[in-house]
Amino acid sequence: MMKYTEMTARQRQAEYDAVLADYEKQKALGLKLNMARGKPSTEQLNMVMDMCSVLVKPEDFVSDGIDSRNYGNVDGLPAAKALFADILGCKPEQCFVGGNASLQLMYDAISKAYTHGLLHSEKPWSKLEKVKWLCPAPGYDRHFKVTQTFGAELITVPMTADGPDMDRVEELIQDPAVKGMWNVPKYSNPEGVVYSDETIRRIASMKPAAPDFMLMWDNAYCIHEFEGDFVPFADILSLCAEYGNADMVYEFASTSKVTFPGAGVSVMATSEANLAYLKPIINIQTIGYDKINQLRHVKYLKNKEHTLALMQRHAAILRPKFHTVLDALDREIAPLGIGTWKRPMGGYFVSYDAMPGTAKRALALCKEAGVTMTGAGATFPYGEDPRDSNIRIAPSLPPVEELQQAIAIFCICVKLAALEKLGV
Amino acid sequence: MMKYTEMTARQRQAEYDAVLADYEKQKALGLKLNMARGKPSTEQLNMVMDMCSVLVKPEDFVSDGIDSRNYGNVDGLPAAKALFADILGCKPEQCFVGGNASLQLMYDAISKAYTHGLLHSEKPWSKLEKVKWLCPAPGYDRHFKVTQTFGAELITVPMTADGPDMDRVEELIQDPAVKGMWNVPKYSNPEGVVYSDETIRRIASMKPAAPDFMLMWDNAYCIHEFEGDFVPFADILSLCAEYGNADMVYEFASTSKVTFPGAGVSVMATSEANLAYLKPIINIQTIGYDKINQLRHVKYLKNKEHTLALMQRHAAILRPKFHTVLDALDREIAPLGIGTWKRPMGGYFVSYDAMPGTAKRALALCKEAGVTMTGAGATFPYGEDPRDSNIRIAPSLPPVEELQQAIAIFCICVKLAALEKLGV
């Protein structure tokens, strides 16, 4: 095999004819495969079924004297706060334990900035002329859409191998209209980048012009290694406090990829001052989240150590899937010089950078052949990848055999798109 | 016994001395009793424990081909929509099934009116000079607080035996700044009033000046009779549609007082056009609510008929509690002419109107004697009862023996407050 750019026109035409024939063959199979979303597989769901039998008798439902079945305790069960504090390395009193979705806690925190203002806001953001928001990209589409839906101007910050480009961030936060920044600091979505210690310190010590700057720290993959052991990670709350930024940070996590994606438990960890400000506002929205499900998780997951052991069992299911994808890329794409990717050690994605100007076309070809992928551009603000290059691959849901078929088709499609671009 | 107003000063003094002696005796017991919130009792929670064992094997978790354990289906499981449509008398496609709290669905609907605007809004309400809101009172304090927290001006509408004073409502909605109205149409909180057919028709046929008027229809007690059989109730969605107001109404209900208060399932029922508008906005807030809990409810409650049978078992627990309260009032207070109340047939409250100017004092006395009640004024906008008269009694939580003590103390306190007012 040789690089496509080094081929003669005739060689490229021959390659195109061969790849196109492969494509037509695959398309004729009428497959329906999905690598679009970071959904755990049925095998993973079946693995945690014991969670459904930890609460049986009425007395099981009582925790620290609180009947989890009844109303109340808007910030969650103390035992659930303790569990999350153990996992995140923060304090239980910094934890607000919510419902089944950390995305909802993020959305609601930002929504309250708009309707009520935050602890250090001069006024609700809905009364401001302009709100700008930093979006390290490639990043998580659902993050970007949250700030977009409230009308914020999204500013792309390039991702590096160490996290966001901090020179750029430090320059941008001089603007008081810049009110916040998205982060997935460990195994970033989609690249699997782990922010370096230096980047994290630079983030924690930022001096944004906005007094109510929101450092959104979505620690979605805090214990989600699929290669090797658990990698300890800095507690962003104490780091921020160390630099006088205690009220700047809002950390999020959930058990969506630990127990059940649709029925996990979420947490927002932030300063006690922020919680003292936010709790009465949230208490108007709800009397409390589902404490039974919180207690179910406490009884099943027990503590950090026990949870990490469970994560190793998830890893055993996920690892061969990531290897399937990465091996195929190594074998099929690497020699052709038409794409680059990183080898993540955790998280739920492989980020593939196609030859610029070919991502949309490649994914259109995938779709036509029955392989659903996250839309091209989704990893950038407004869904617009300026280079039309980044593609997010989510290998977790399909069984390995289906994944082999899906990634084979994906490789064919990126080849075809590259050949079309180079001219055949 | 004779009416306090008909007593001579000397008689009143003697009565005061006797009641005060009773009060001191009760206070000395150091009781800790609670009639503050409409919380179901432990007996009711224990009665529905079978709900926790309806989902066991992995295949139990699949409903209409959807794995309830995984992500997705922002508007809920089809089976859950069908259950709520059966109970409310609307269509499944009008139901958005949410998480554990209908209050949250109400808050979020109004929050989105402020941040995004509704289907027929000219702009988000946060961009308006003024938003006004109609609050039939006495009413539910948590309702009033939702609209207050967003800065709406709350306008009190008097409640009558048939529901809100519709002459007043029809006049007030001529103002385009009046954007909505709270309602608990069946067994209203706190009076237990069931809106009459005529009132409901007048509401459904309203012509508010605001094109995006929100008729908030909190059908919290839709199947919550504690005396007698289920009372059929109009489907407000089809009634509104009949009068060309299909998009005006947002109905809410939940299983908080059917299964577990803290871990039930909630629903918002509204026009398909409203849902088509709101679903994509809500889908930015969350990927979906807890579908496992939705399915648990579907399997346990089955359908309306089966749910009504369960509600009769709740009624059997609640009935003696309401009788305890009402009997005490009949016996202790009625002959004295110092208070009035209604005899509700369903819901969770007894509404007591004390001699004007004595509610705060009576509740302060209760508190001192160890009986916690909903704060005086809570049933009015801004927590201010202009007559300082209405008191909400919640008999559901304490066992009957405790309730007997609590209501005895309550009677003593309203007597003392009245005697103080009349002069001793």
TrEMBL record, chains A, B:
GO molecular function terms noted in the UniProt entry: L-aspartate:2-oxoglutarate aminotransferase activity
Pfam families: Asp_aminotransf (PF12897)
Protein name per UniProt: Aspartate transaminase
